[in-house]
Specification:
The complex is a heterotrimer of chains A (about 160), B (about 800) and C (about 290).
Chain A: E1 2-8, E2 11-17, H1 23-30, E3 49-52, E4 55-58, E5 71-73, H2 86-93, H3 103-116, H4 122-129, H5 140-150
Helix pairs in contact in A: 2-5
Chain B: E1 2-3, H1 22-26, E2 42-48, E3 54-60, H2 62-65, E4 70-75, H3 76-80, E5 86-87, E6 100-101, E7 108-109, E8 115-121, H4 124-131, E9 135-140, H5 147-150, E10 166-174, H6 177-182, E11 186-194, E12 197-198, E13 206-212, E14 217-222, H7 227-238, E15 245-248, H8 264-276, E16 280-283, H9 286-292, E17 295-296, E18 299-307, E19 313-325, H10 335-343, E20 353-361, H11 375-393, H12 397-404, E21 413-414, E22 420-421, H13 426-436, H14 439-451, E23 455-469, H15 472-475, E24 482-488, E25 494-498, H16 507-519, E26 526-530, H17 547-574, E27 582-584, E28 587-590, E29 593-596, H18 597-605, E30 620-625, E31 643-658, E32 663-674, H19 681-700, E33 732-736, H20 752-768, H21 783-791
Parallel strand pairs in B: 2-16, 14-15, 19-20, 25-26, 32-33
Antiparallel strand pairs in B: 1-33, 2-8, 3-7, 3-9, 4-8, 5-6, 10-20, 11-18, 12-17, 13-14, 13-16, 18-19, 21-22, 23-31, 24-25, 24-30, 27-28, 28-29, 31-32
Helix pairs in contact in B: 10-11, 11-12, 11-20, 16-17, 19-20
Chain C: E1 7-10, H1 14-23, E2 27-30, H2 36-41, E3 49-52, E4 62-65, E5 68-72, H3 77-82, H4 84-89, H5 91-97, H6 103-106, H7 111-117, H8 123-130, E6 134-139, E7 142-147, H9 148-151, E8 152-154, E9 157-158, E10 165-172, E11 178-185, E12 195-203, E13 209-217, E14 224-225, H10 241-254, H11 265-288
Parallel strand pairs in C: 1-3, 2-3
Antiparallel strand pairs in C: 4-5, 5-10, 6-7, 6-10, 8-9, 11-12, 12-13, 13-14
Classes of the chains: A alpha+beta (about 160), B alpha+beta (about 800), C alpha+beta (about 290).
């Protein structure tokens, strides 16, 4: 077992894990951060996306031991029911989610996008988001929500 | 009645959410099956067959039991001793093979991925370690993965006692096809094929079981579209009474029909929870989902269509062969193919129609439901026939449809198979489509493109969808009805509990609105829940585009009953006749006098001396709601009305084919959609968007591959491609609202676009390839498959 | 779908890494993990030891030296795609890196990892072959440089020794008259290529093509060097449509693809023709855009 310390949504976290434990499982099963979801465990769908050092990563393809000393941000550190992040608000307003299973990953990828570029074009949005699969919405309203935000200044957190 | 709806503008407000579900889902606070946590939770991993067909000689789990952290390891033979079996409950069908199967395979495996043993351990990691220590002695048998090969006399047989692989045979000789064919000017003969795909909710199946030996109660959390049906089946498997079983379906990451079946693992979890006396969870991983849950669509149609030279289709004969894989699935996986046979006449006046259905077992994963439920294959068949006959006769697709469509004046129109169509005007719907798609202009642009050697095509298709169907004939039990509970609490806030189960369709939002509108209060005062058999006696779940029709109807019925009682209370308090009390904005009014809604509630519960003499206290009802117009069984002529009502749609697509790569670009897509009264257009449009994308996926991206020995080749999401952001096709949506006669006037929605769009895309690709003379008779138009087709024609 | 047990060491130097690799029977290097971890989750890869080289910051930069660009093995795809200096000095590398997976994958995936994994459908190995680059490998006894042409031994097989760490990749620096393009066919944006073709060429001051290299991914068991197919264009000053299509035909004929769920061998061969023609047109135009030809 390996002692791993990292920053989780701005707070110190410490876990004792086998090297093989995936970051996704540690977040969900040990730290009760269940917003990142398992859907493919192959890096193909993006439902488990979290930010490590501000960069989106597939938490199903990282071992927890690899985030020792890193800053990890999950959906639980983005907005709260009483204070939705503008990305979250836009997704709701534009009906950009249905079952919601992929939604946390969408929000985190969009967060990274807007931090890199507050005003992405439609094509750039598609390019940024293409690694996050959704089976419900047909993507139309997700793109619509992010396009609307790209025209505003409030996308950055 | 017709309204070309402008795109719905999202609400102006930047506070609050469009749907009440949204807040928790956006914040990662949804509770999907995998998110349900319990102290001391143990994890189940399942050993699955690596062989497509084999006899199990012996299983030795002793190695697994030595591993630290392992609680138990179980074989099918061991569990079978005190566990019930699944069966289809369709003993009444003489041409159906009767089979029983267990929570784990016992004697034989029939597909790669079939569950043969289970381990319970402290973590999924350890449980998977333990699987590697289980030894299974298999006697490998020859396998068959191709459905037509499975029908050959020398094919390997999945069930030796059958004598062949035909799981279900149904003949459907409707009308007089002999005369129709005798009178025909010509006969079109074609073979159509539909490939194997999967509904693929991103959140797969899974179950978490808790058993309390002290009370003998079992709670099973399961990601299921049909919690009450599952409870009934769990009672059969576990031997517990339904009163001791509670099934809870939490938030669901999609369903799409995949979860309208009770996979054996759900019952396995219940059985293991009772054995190991710990809460246990099994969460389907993606390889399990792709190889061992529920596949869909795969059919072969051999069709003969008798036509007159004026374009009229006089009669149709269809041999429908469905590749059901392993038939060990409940509700029966033959269901969609049975529905295919019923829907073939579609919106056309085709009474002389005969089919023969063969559902054939092969060494592949079970086939079953996926959004559309066999109706897309039927629509593809008849719409292709119309185009191909029209092509022979030089009659354009629109005219072919007008010639054959059910006339407007015949309502209800009873189809050859007994469907009682209560739909609006098909002619008007088609006109709306042509106008909305600017069809003539699209055809002109196609013709211009052809002069530049570009392969542009325009295609149209129409559909009738059986909504809120009766599942009794497919399940041997369960009906078409729905239940709802509505309770006004003492503070005047309202709980609604429905027997449908949202998987993302926004039921908390729409049912709150439905109840609030009846009660004259704000939707904010209504809390909706679903998916808990411990709260509502029964419910039929969400599938078959039924939730708004049946769940909405039940909610409205319940709200009306409670409102009537509240009106009676108000009448007493206001000293007014009940029929002169009005209800709005949270008040019961009589003239200038008004009593707040909450005050009536408190009278009913707290100040019961205020109630009219003899009135029972409380303000709650549980209602059952049935449309009373469906048939559970076919009549003596094989006809049945399968659905409470029928929704309709039509689609037009414009595509361009790149002949070098086989890539099809969808340039334009128009859908006319009539689901009766629209409950919430934003959510409805979202359903259509999603169904369109799934139609794009089905047609151009998705295919489950098996090799000839039954080895699955698409085992991860790297191999099975569902569309992503770059593949967006934004449809132009035109809503028609022809109310049904049911409560609320609803017809049901969610599936229509996935039923009709693939046929429209196929028609458009066919049209694009006219210069090359390559007919489209297959649903799979992925780039490699389309190239294959083009390569086969020397012209390309 | 959970990985089997393994030992783990996060190394801080190349020497430490190669020693760890030498000490263990079936150790694997963990770089970006975007190819290895999926295989481990399926237990198709089950190393006894993972040597995590993500701490080797010295391997994550690039430098120009004597007409050669040397990229550290730990350059992430996202860095290659977005770094202004890489985009300027090695535009074809930046363009190709941008074709790999999605942002979340490119944030982790590394150049060295992609080359060492030697997936026959991956883009960077094919690009390296087209660029006639080198692989630099370090072992316990020192460093050696392997030409790309000798590096790839088969599907997922290279000439790396078990105890060697791929530390750098070298390619010729971009110079006047160079033009390169990578064309690939993917079913969906971000997928592994069903097939891909890289064309790297040079046009002299008169505009004549005096060097032309072609390599493909998804067109054989290894990144295929298909340069012989383009020899007929050497000396040509103009690329005709017929010339581009002829290259396509020759590339297709020289390919040796096999089929899988993403497409048959025949389909990949057809794609090769389309992609090679497209790549050579783009590369030719880029080579000429330096103000000559």
């Amino acid at each position: 077992m390996t002692d791993v310390r990292f920053s989780l949504n701005g707070e110190a976290a410490e876990v004792d894990v086998e090297p093989r434990e995936l970051l996704l499982d540690t977040l969900r099963d040990r730290l009760s951060m269940t917003g990142a979801h398992a859907a493919c465990e192959q890096g193909a769908c993006g439902a488990c996306t979290v930010l490590v050092g501000g960069a989106s990563v597939r938490s199903c393809l990282m071992f927890t031991v690899q985030v020792n000393g890193a800053e990890v941000r999950t959906i639980e550190g983005v907005g709260s029911p009483g204070a939705l992040h503008p990305i979250q608000q836009a997704l709701s307003t534009h009906h950009g989610l249905q079952c919601g299973y992929c939604t946390p990953g969408m929000v985190l990828t969009a967060l990274e996008m807007f931090e890199a570029d507050p005003h992405p074009s439609r094509d750039e949005i598609v390019e940024w988001m293409s690694g996050n699969l959704c089976r419900c919405t047909g993507y139309i309203n997700i793109v619509g929500a992010l396009e609307a935000l790209a025209g505003t200044a409030e996308a950055q957190s | 009645m017709t309204a070309v709806a402008p795109p719905v503008a999202p609400p102006e407000t930047t506070t609050g959410t469009l749907r009440r579900e949204d807040t928790r889902l956006l914040c990662g606070q949804g509770e999907y099956l995998g998110d349900v946590q319990r102290p001391d939770l143990k994890h189940i991993a399942i050993l699955r067959s690596p062989l497509a067909h084999a006899r199990i000689r012996d299983i030795d789990v002793s190695g697994a039991l030595t591993l630290p952290g392992v609680i138990g390891a179980f074989t099918g033979a061991e569990l079978a001793a005190d566990t019930g079996t699944f069966n289809h409950h369709l003993e009444a069908i003489p041409t159906l093979r009767q089979i029983n199967w267990s929570v784990l395979a016992v004697d034989k495996v029939r597909f790669v991925g079939e569950a043969v043993a289970a381990v319970v351990a402290d973590s999924r990691y350890i449980a998977e370690d333990a699987l590697e220590l289980i030894e299974v002695d298999y006697e490998e048998l020859p396998a068959v993965s191709d459905v037509e090969a499975a029908l050959e006399g020398d094919s390997p047989q999945l069930y030796e006692d059958w004598g062949d692989n035909v799981f279900l045979y149904i003949p459907g000789p409707h009308g007089d096809t002999e005369t129709a064919f005798a009178n025909a000017d010509g006969v079109l003969e074609e073979k159509f094929t539909h490939h194997r795909i999967i509904g693929l909710p991103l959140d797969g199946h899974g179950a978490l079981g808790e058993f309390d030996p002290a009370t003998g109660r079992l709670v099973l959390h399961a990601s299921t579209q049909i919690p009450h049906f599952l409870r009934t089946v769990l009672a059969e498997i576990t031997g517990l009474s339904e009163a001791k079983i509670r099934v809870v379906a939490p938030d669901m990451g999609g369903g799409f029909g995949n979860k309208v079946h009770m996979v054996r693992e759900e019952a396995l979890v219940a059985v293991l929870a009772m054995r190991v006396r710990h809460p246990v969870v099994w969460k389907q991983d993606r390889t399990e989902s792709l190889t061992a849950s529920v596949h869909s669509r795969q059919q072969v149609h051999n069709v003969e269509a008798a036509y007159r030279n004026d374009g009229r289709i006089l009669g149709l004969r269809a041999e429908i062969i469905a590749d059901v894989g392993s038939p060990e699935l409940y509700v029966i996986g033959a269901g969609p193919a049975i529905v295919t046979t019923a829907i073939v006449p579609n919106c056309y006046d085709l009474q002389d129609y005969a089919f023969e259905l063969r559902c054939v077992a092969t060494n592949k994963a079970p086939m079953g439901a996926y959004r559309g439920y066999g109706q897309g294959q039927a629509v593809f068949l008849i719409e292709r026939v119309l185009d191909l006959v029209g092509e022979k006769l030089g009659i354009d697709p629109v005219e072919m449809r007008r010639i054959n469509m059910i006339p407007d004046e015949q309502r209800p129109y009873v189809t050859a198979t007994g469907a009682v169509l209560d739909c609006g005007s098909f002619h008007d719907q088609l006109s709306d489509l042509l106008e909305g798609a600017d069809y003539d202009a699209a055809c002109r642009r196609r013709d211009e493109a052809r002069t530049e050697d570009r392969l542009v095509g325009v295609g149209i298709a129409q559909m009738v969808e059986a909504t809120a169907p009766n599942i009794h004939g497919l399940a041997g039990q369960f009906g078409v009805y729905e239940m709802a509970m509505l309770a006004v609490q003492p503070d005047g806030k309202v709980n609604v509990v429905v027997g449908t189960k949202s998987q993302g369709q926004g039921h908390e939002t729409i049912f709150a609105k439905a109840a609030a509108d009846e009660l004259g209060i704000s939707p904010d005062d209504v809390t909706v829940s679903d998916g808990d058999t411990g709260v509502l006696p029964y419910g039929s779940g969400t599938w078959g585009s039924r939730s708004v029709v049946m769940g909405g109807g039940a909610v409205i019925k319940a709200a009306r009953q409670v409102r009537d009682k509240m009106v009676a209370i108000a009448a007493g308090l206001l000293d007014a006749p009940a029929d002169q009390i009005t209800v709005s904005d949270g008040f019961f009014r009589f003239g200038e006098a008004a009593i707040p809604f909450a005050q009536i509630a408190s009278a009913a519960y707290l100040h019961t001396f205020l109630l009219p003499p003899g009135m029972d206290p409380g303000l709650s009802v549980i209602v059952g709601y049935d449309s009373f117009n469906t048939s559970p069984f076919p009549d003596e002529r094989g006809k049945m009305n399968v659905a409470a009502t029928y929704a309709t749609a039509a689609a037009a697509a414009v595509v361009e084919v790149d002949p070098a790569t086989g890539v099809v670009s969808v340039g334009d897509l128009t859908i006319v959609h009539d689901c009766g009264t629209v409950m919430n257009q934003v959510i409805l449009d979202g359903q259509i968007h999603g169904a369109v994308m799934q139609a794009i996926g089905q047609t151009f991206f998705e295919e489950l591959h098996y090799d000839e020995n039954g080895q699955p080749l698409t085992t991860t999401l790297l191999d099975y491609a569902i569309p992503t952001f770059g593949d967006v096709v934004e449809p132009r949506i035109i809503h028609r609202e022809t109310p049904s006669d049911l409560i609320g006037g609803y017809r049901g929605a969610g599936e229509g676009a996935l039923i009709v769009v693939p046929a429209a895309l196929a028609a458009a690709v066919h049209d694009a390839l006219v210069p090359l003379g390559v007919p489209i008779t297959q649903a799979n138009l992925s780039p490699p498959r389309l190239r294959e087709l083009l390569r086969g024609h020397s012209a390309a | 779908m959970k990985p089997a047990r393994f030992e783990y060491v996060a190394v801080e130097s190349v020497a430490e890494a190669t020693e760890a690799l030498a000490d263990s029977e079936d150790a694997r290097v963990l770089a970006g993990g975007q190819s290895l971890v999926p295989l481990m989750n399926l237990r198709l890869a089950r190393p006894s030891l993972l040597v995590d080289v993500n701490g080797l910051g010295a391997l994550s930069g690039f430098e120009a030296r004597n007409g050669t660009l040397r990229f550290g093995a730990m350059c992430r795809h996202r860095f290659l795609e977005t770094d202004p200096a890489v985009r300027r000095q090695a535009p074809i590398v930046a363009e190709t890196a941008g074709l790999i997976g999605h942002v979340g994958i490119r944030n982790r995936g590394t150049l060295g990892g992609s080359i060492a994994h030697a997936d026959p459908v991956a883009e960077l190995p094919a690009l390296l072959v087209a660029l006639d680059g080198n692989v630099v490998a370090s072992g316990t006894t020192g460093e050696r440089t392997v030409p790309a042409a000798e590096f790839f031994a088969g599907p997922f097989m290279t000439s790396l020794e078990p105890a060697e760490l791929l530390t750098a990749v070298e390619i010729p620096a971009h110079s006047e008259g160079d033009g390169g393009a990578f064309s690939e066919f993917v079913l969906r944006h971000g997928d592994f290529a069903t097939a891909g073709v890289a064309v790297i060429l040079h046009r002299d001051e008169g505009g004549a093509c005096d060097r032309l290299r072609v390599a493909g991914c998804g067109l054989g068991p290894i990144p295929m060097d298909l340069s012989a197919a383009g020899e007929f264009l050497l000396g040509e000053s103009a690329l005709t449509d017929g010339g581009a299509d002829e290259l396509g035909r020759r590339v297709a004929a020289a390919s040796d693809p096999t089929g899988d769920v993403h497409g048959s061998g025949e389909y990949r061969r057809e794609l090769a023709a389309v992609l090679a023609a497209d790549a050579v047109r783009r590369a030719w135009g880029r080579a000429g855009s330096a103000g000559r030809g």
